[in-house]
Amino acid sequence: MKNSIAFCGNIITDQIKMIPRWPDRGMLVPISSVKRAVGGSVSNTAIDLKTLDPSVAVKAVGKVGTDDNGEFAVKFLASKGVDCSAVMRTDERPTSFTDVMTVESTGERTFFNLHGADSTLVPDDIDVAALDCEIFHFGYLLLLDGMDAPDDEYGTKAARLLAKVQSAGIKTSVDIVSEQSDRFARIVRPALRYCDYCIINEVEGAMATGRKPDDLRGICDGLFELGVKERVVVHCPDVGVTMGRDGEFVRVGSLKLPDGWIKGSVGAGDAFCAGSLYALLKGMDPEALLRLGSCSAAMNLAVSDAVSGAKSYAETMALDGRFARR
After folding, report:
1. DSSP H helical segments within the chain, as ranges?
2. Using the 8-state DSSP alphabet, how is residue 266 labeled?
3. How many CB atoms lie within 10 A of CB 128?
4. Does pLDDT of 37 surpass 80?
């Protein structure tokens, strides 16, 4: 085992803006604080996993602009021990950014995103032979215009890339952005045919498979029917579930966190994903995977940004005995 993982896709800066409540249409609410942080699938999952276990070689693959946000993102990733040699710079578009409007009392957040430099990322940008990793995680489908573009042979450019990575003997993993649209069948399903692992939430799973969000076993079955090769992981606020190709279905309740613990939920799904990927990299059993994923997400919920809550494996798993489960 190479003990290494590459994260490809969105590299974003988050402008986290805390508000007391969500306003009615046309109304005003004050912003109590603003914080700039890294965000996006690559930044969040790479930093979370590298913090869990610094011995794992973690590589970021993507595009940022030549602007200040791009410089900030690359420097921050590098400061956390992430290899940024495969992060490209372009002056074609600015670095992608998201305004994250977060309600202080609940942690509920709403996103306003600019599709920037990472939307110009295409398969030809990526040197698969140089990846040298055990797992290649791609996120997010539906938020990368260049990768979501149609492909005559594979369905989408993302599917073409994943097929090429699989053919190099690397396990592939995908994540999806939560989006209210009719694009799931056209963009998500082609990629699932070249996916070894799929780690998503119940809403995304329902949109991809046509099942109801509370039909977690049905979502897992549906994702395998759409082409996932080895393992499906679905995380929800109250529970996490996973199913292997053999049909074994495992569920673990979320931690019962005390009042005041949750400061924000931006990046919680990515934290769960990072824990799950670490478990897959290390060959952990399905229950251990879900326990680690939920503890990683709980650590994330204790802070307002996407990554500063990440802790070591020992510190993260200490939550498993500290709090009861649902």
Report:
1. 40-52, 68-79, 145-148, 157-167, 189-192, 202-209, 216-225, 268-282, 286-301, 313-317, 319-322
2. T
3. 16
4. yes
Angle at 176 between CA 138 and CA 64, to 5 degrees: 50
**Quick one: which of 11, 265, 237 has its CA closest to 139?**
11
Give the span between the Cα atoms of 51 and 44, in whole angstroms.
Answer: 11
Phi, psi angle pair for 86, to nearest 5°: -105, 15
Instruction: Tell me if residue 204 falls in helix, strand or coil.
Output: helix
Q: Is the pLDDT of residue 152 over 60?
A: yes
Whether the Cβ atoms of residue 301 and residue 268 lie closer than 8 Å to each other: yes
DSSP state letter for 194? T
Residues 6+ apart with CB under 8 A from 177: 139, 140, 141, 142, 143, 204
Is the CB of residue 266 less than 8 Å from the CB of residue 100?
yes
Is-contact 211 218, C-beta < 8 A? yes
Task: Classify residue 267 as left (phi > 0), alpha (psi -120 to 50) or beta.
Answer: left
Q: Tell me the DSSP string of 104-171.
A: TTT--EEEEEE--GGGG--GGG--GGGT--SEEEEEEETS-HHHHSEETTTEEHHHHHHHHHHHTT-E
Cα distance between residue 126 and residue 133, in whole Å? 14
Whether 1 has a pLDDT exceeding 70, the answer reads no
pLDDT interval class at 118 (50, 70, 90): very high
Whether the predicted pLDDT of 55 surpasses 80: yes
Over residues 295-313, the pLDDT tens digits come to 999 999 999 888 999 999 9
For the chain, state the CA radius of gyration.
18
Q: Tell me the pairing of strands 249-253 and 171-176.
A: unpaired
Length of the chain counted residue by residue: 326
Report whether 57 contacts 81 (CB < 8 A): no
